[in-house]
Amino acid sequence: MRSLLLWIAVVVCLLCSVAAVVQSGSSDGFGKPRDTETAISFLEYKLMAPSVPMIPLTLIHGADSKGAVCLDGTLPGYHLDRGFGSGANSWLIQLEGGGWCNNHRSCVYRKTSRRGSSKFMEKALAFTGILSNRSEENPDFFNWNRIKLRYCDGASFSGDSQDESSQLFYRGQRIWQVAMEEFLSLGMKQANQALLSGCSAGGLASILHCDEFRELLPSSTKVKCLSDAGMFLDSVDVSGGHSLRNMFQGVVTVQNLQKDLSSTCTNHLDPTSCFFPQNLVSDIKTPMFLLNTAYDSWQIQESLAPPTADPGGIWKACKSDHSRCNSSQIQFFQEFRNQMLFAVNSFSNSDQNGLYINSCFAHCQTERQDTWFAQDSPQLNGKRVAESVGDWYFDRAKNVKAIDCPYPCDTTCHNLIFE
Predict the structure, then answer these.
(1) Number of other residues whose CB lies within 10 A of the CB of residue 346
(2) Residue 348 pLDDT > 60, yes or no?
(3) Residue 334 CB partners (closer than 8 Å, separation 6+)
(4) Coarse DSSP helix, strand, coil percentages of the chain, rounded to the nearest 5 percent
(5) Strand partners for 358
(6) Which residues partner with 223 through β-bridges?
(7) What is the maximal distance between C-alpha atoms in the chain?
(8) Is the dihedral of CA 11, 12, 15, 21 positive or negative?
(9) Residue partners of 200: CB distance under 8 A and separation at least 6
């Protein structure tokens, strides 16, 4: 009964958030009112069964003494479901997503939400998909120690600075470090297998921190990384501008990310370019799996056709429901898909890496049960996402790389429709 009540509370909370978002509009596409991540989260929770187990929030006590705090100065937190049986010494770390804040206004706003303060985080979260503890839902990782690290810094667990006047703490890198120390003390230092994963902004974080994660663990530990919906592209928007580049430039500058970015990249590119994964993935030494839809819903909503690039609302219907797009709009999406394939081309040449690019209009497929491992889940070459990730991680197959044919050929997609 307690789990059911918690589940209802989470859904009601998300519904209220979405209603507020829809009513208030947006002035900059990335600031206070619009929250595409919240809308996507709500759509995902609608698909969730009430019987899903709820995992309580744990705050990292003492983190504040190391300056590892959320945007508002509160303690960071995580949810841990302990492993059992053959998975007792295996660890999966899932980095939460939730966009970014790129200026004073948007960062101050996040202080009043779970994206910037543990005061507003759910006290328990449902573990589904790659976090599920049921073998029929998560065949390869169900009995591992599974952790979801909450996201409250606004810069993909990167950055180390402070805005004294507004009491804003940009401490993503410190949160990452203190969380890893906590997990190592809980037993991860004895892990025989480990997987660093993440969705959206967390998927970008898994790319940024992959090699660092490898270095934390003994050389005898099998370590790999998974980025779900983390391939954010430096693309031109529908107005010919660079909405996401402008956004990332603000994040890098405001949160002082320069020193945390890959020196291999910053030696020849500007810091903003080195926050884009397309300029990072080929240089990662640790085995990495990239999972992404070719028509990523978040990027369509917020990078390709944000309100600032479409003031007349010509793209509003199309970006909410791809079935309402005209032929020229679909062609624009096909060009975006081509950019995605070009961005992963060099990465895919490595035998140790894995790839799964399906032609769906979705965002984050590892934590949704319907897209991770269900009877009617999306498939590529007859494999569901969970099966492909498992084949790659456990070396059950060689060259685990699959790229879908262009839209509309894939009939297995679970596309997101924004009402």
Answers:
(1) 12
(2) yes
(3) 406, 407
(4) 40, 15, 45
(5) 293
(6) 194
(7) 57
(8) negative
(9) 37, 97, 98, 99, 228, 229, 230, 298, 363, 364
Give the torsion through C-alpha atoms of 104, 107, 110, 116, to 10 deg: -140
Which helix (H) or strand (E) segment is 192 a member of?
Answer: none
- Look at residues 394, 369, 407 and name the one whose alpha carbon lies nearest to residue 136: 369
Helices (H), ranges, 288-354: 297-299, 316-320, 327-343
pLDDT of 41: 55
**Tokens linked to 315:** 């793209």
Strand partners, 402: 356
3-state SS, residue 365 = coil
SS3 203: helix
For residue 144, is pLDDT > 60?
Answer: yes
Which residue is it, tokens 């934390």? 216
Tokens of 190: 């004895």
Distance CA 90, CA 186 (A): 12
Domains of the chain (ranges, CATH numbers): 2-403 (3.40.50.1820)
Tens-digit pLDDT profile for residues 168-205: 999 999 999 999 999 999 999 999 999 999 999 999 99
Min mean pLDDT across 50-64, 206-220, 344-358 is at: 50-64
Q: Are 263 and 279 in contact (CB under 8 A)?
A: no
Taking the alpha carbons at both ends of the chain, their separation in whole angstroms is 31
What are the residue numbers of the active site? Answer: 200, 296, 363
Q: What is the pTM of this model?
A: 0.91
Rounded distance between C-alpha atoms, residue 163 and residue 170, angstroms: 8
The gap from C-alpha 359 to its chain's centroid, in whole angstroms, comes to 18
